[in-house]
Amino acid sequence: MSLVSALKDALASGDGGADAVRYRCGECGTGFDRARTRMVRTRCPDCGSADLRVVEEP
C-alpha cells in the first residue's frame, strides 16, 4: 500500500470504531478499512477497482 493510500485510509476510517468494515480488492488484493457509511461508491485506494469483498465486519 502506498503512503498516500495509507494516509487516506487513516483519515477516512476515523478512529477504527465499530463502524469500520474491512474490504479486500478482487483485482489487486489490497486490504483496507472504511466506515460502513462509505460503502456507496467505495473503490480500491490503490487500483480504483469497484470489485470489493467484505472481509470483516464489526
Features:
58 residues, alpha+beta, Rubrerythrin, domain 2, three-stranded antiparallel beta sheet, 1 helix, 3 strands
What does this structure look like?
There is one protein chain. The chain has 58 residues and is of the alpha+beta class. The protein has one domain (3-56): Rubrerythrin, domain 2 (Single Sheet), CATH 2.20.28. The chain is built from one helix and three strands. Strands 2-1-3 form a three-stranded antiparallel β-sheet, with no helix packed on it. The longest helix has 10 residues, at 3-12. The chain is globular and about 25 Å long. The N and C termini lie far apart (23 Å).
The helix tally amounts to: 1
**SSE order, one letter for each helix or strand:** HEEE
State the end-to-end CA separation.
Answer: 23 Å
Q: What class, by secondary structure content?
A: alpha+beta
Q: Please, how many domains?
A: 1
Tell me the name of the CATH class: Mainly Beta
DSSP strand count: 3
CATH topology: Rubrerythrin, domain 2
What is the gist of this entry?
With 58 residues, the chain is of the alpha+beta class.
SSE arrangement:
Layout: H1 3-12, E1 20-25, E2 31-35, E3 52-56
Antiparallel strand pairs: 1-2, 1-3
